Amino acid sequence: MDHSWICTCCGKSHDILPMAYGPGPPDSWFAISEAERDMRSLLTDDVCVIYDAEYYIRGCVEIPVIGSPQHFEWGVWVSVSRDSLIYMLDRWTAEIPADEPPRFGWLTTWIKGYPEPHDIRCHVVLRSGPVRPLIQLEPTDYPLAVEQQQGMTLDRVKDIAADMLHPPSR
Q: What pLDDT does 46 receive?
């Protein structure tokens, strides 16, 4: 978003306010030794399969920004069943009808600043063309689900950007 803002961490002015962030691979992928990853897993930008027993799809949690026509987006990984993964991959670039039912999944991405996602149910909504699925979290008191339902302020987006630009040193 072309929006000048001042970072609360470094005090510098920025001309662009990032409106989307994406994750690295699912945490389960890191649990596999590097020597076994090629044999035991498949990882692409959109799909992860581990030991032919765990199936993940990458999608987008869209959050309305209060007072703005734009939305904020978190890229996330969702655990799905094998059948759901096959179903979604068969339709990945297809035209999706408006009445296409969503697929069930579990949020697995931990996003800095939110609690770990334990038992967060979601719906994976396929979208037409080569667009990642929309992830709709079931309404709960989990902060990300609350933001998806109620929206976030532009100041919250700026705070996220400041945190993402200045991760804690290790």
A: 95
